[in-house]
Write a structure and sequence with these properties.
9-stranded mixed beta sheet, mainly beta, 25 strands, 6-stranded parallel beta sheet
């Protein structure tokens, strides 16, 4: 008896650790070494590798492969068909499994539909990567990233709304939904407690 839901078409290999309340939908494959938190959702045709850790309350939408050496903290959203990689310079004829690069997606980050995250980067807390963007370098906390290659065009609140702040410089702004105040200083955004 499990305390999570698995669709009959899904494959969950023996040894996988899956938290209570998680939902695994059609044609998902979760490898035996995966560690998954509570209340996660895995949409149709998701693959989760062996050396993967996924925190609580993550949503992995349809057609996403979370390969070895990808680590998602709590509350990460992976939009439909977004892409992770784990080898920087792959060749079919050359074995590079010993060269996997770690990718870390921090708490609350959103990765939009069809975006690509090149291995070896860190996506900051509550960052927002727009649909179709290609991220090839680290992303600051709360940064709004778009384009190919991705560039920062603004800042996002934890609620998921763009803040009225410049990309660089200094200033402060309040989230119109929560009233939380965010302060920009020295290229970093922080939330006032």
């Amino acid at each position: 008896m499990t305390d999570y839901t698995v669709h009959p078409s899904a494959i969950v290999d023996e040894g996988a650790k899956i938290g209570a309340g998680s939902r695994i939908w059609h044609f998902v494959h979760i490898c035996g070494g995966a560690e998954i938190g509570e209340n996660c959702s895995f949409g149709q045709n998701v693959f989760v590798g062996n050396r993967v850790k996924i925190g609580d309350n993550c949503k992995i939408q349809n057609n996403v492969s979370v390969y070895d050496n990808v680590y998602l903290e709590e509350g990460v959203f992976c939009g439909p068909s977004m892409v992770f990689t784990n080898v920087y310079n792959p060749r079919s004829l050359i074995e590079r499994k010993s060269e996997y690069r770690d990718t870390l997606v921090k708490k609350g980050a959103t990765l939009g539909a069809n975006c690509t995250i090149v291995c070896g980067v860190t996506i900051g807390r509550f960052a927002f990567v727009g649909a179709g963007a290609v991220v090839n370098k680290d992303v600051p906390d709360y940064a709004l990233m778009v384009g190919v290659p991705a560039r920062q065009i603004g800042w996002m609140s934890e609620y998921g709304e763009q803040l009225n702040l410049p990309v660089s410089g200094s200033g402060s702004a309040a989230c119109s939904h929560t009233g939380a105040v965010y302060t920009l200083s020295d290229g970093r955004l922080s939330k006032s407690e």
